[in-house]
């Protein structure tokens, strides 16, 4: 790939998704975009860059961006945020009462393990939630992973990563060598394609936001922009969870860390509300 076509593709992907591609990732680009070149009958990356600027470029740009996302995920990833969520939910449910559903959002949900982990916690805690309903939304920029998340079908390898055996037995059925999430759990979640760089206001207000292991791929101004947009969608007593390598420090003062909790944040000025 020539430096010119790399620079063109990197700029396009960044403007569409926020993902920053470093020059040393040229090889990764070549590997991931190879199938697109083949499918489109393009000789090289110069030809791809040209096609991206021509008619139909928009659809192709979507495919290129999707191909460059990293969709690694696992059930109950890193443990701690999910333990914190278990402690948080009864209080939040009591504050909402039976008439108002709790709204939880797995932003950048990839293939759905995070949203299904949240759903399993809600199912387990149901007796302590006083009849409070819960809606979970899972979103991702990639249509391919949103489709997979909706299907709720996982390989043996995927269920072996982080999913306790008792929850596998309780919520999954084995079908044709894959593990299918049970209908009652699937019904708790709506999966939708959504770009974190787009206006988040149409998604509404959330009590809990998981935005984990996606900001690491963005530059500082993009991280700040997404964090501020999320703070605006977070309920006053709500909590935002970030990934282990992510922080709000130096990016925004609209969110502050919960004392003693790494990776869990509340809106600034709401100290007494989210324990
Ligand atoms: C590494 S996965 C993280 C999955 C899950 N949150 C976790 O921690 O296991 C990152 C996901 O972010 C998505 N993504 C990247 N840029 C995005 C954007 N601008 N808007 C929404 N999703 C995005 C990718 O498609 C990918 O599925």
TrEMBL record:
InterPro entries, sorted: Bact_Chemotaxis_MeTrfase, CheR_C, CheR_MeTrfase, CheR_N, CheR_N_sf, SAM-dependent_MTases_sf
Keyword Transferase: yes
SUPFAM superfamilies cross-referenced by the UniProt entry: Chemotaxis receptor methyltransferase CheR, N-terminal domain, S-adenosyl-L-methionine-dependent methyltransferases
GO biological process annotation, one example: methylation
Gene3D superfamilies named among the record's database cross-references: Chemotaxis receptor methyltransferase CheR, N-terminal domain (1.10.155.10), Vaccinia Virus protein VP39 (3.40.50.150)
Class in the EC hierarchy, top level: transferase
The protein's name: protein-glutamate O-methyltransferase
Organism name: Roseicella frigidaeris
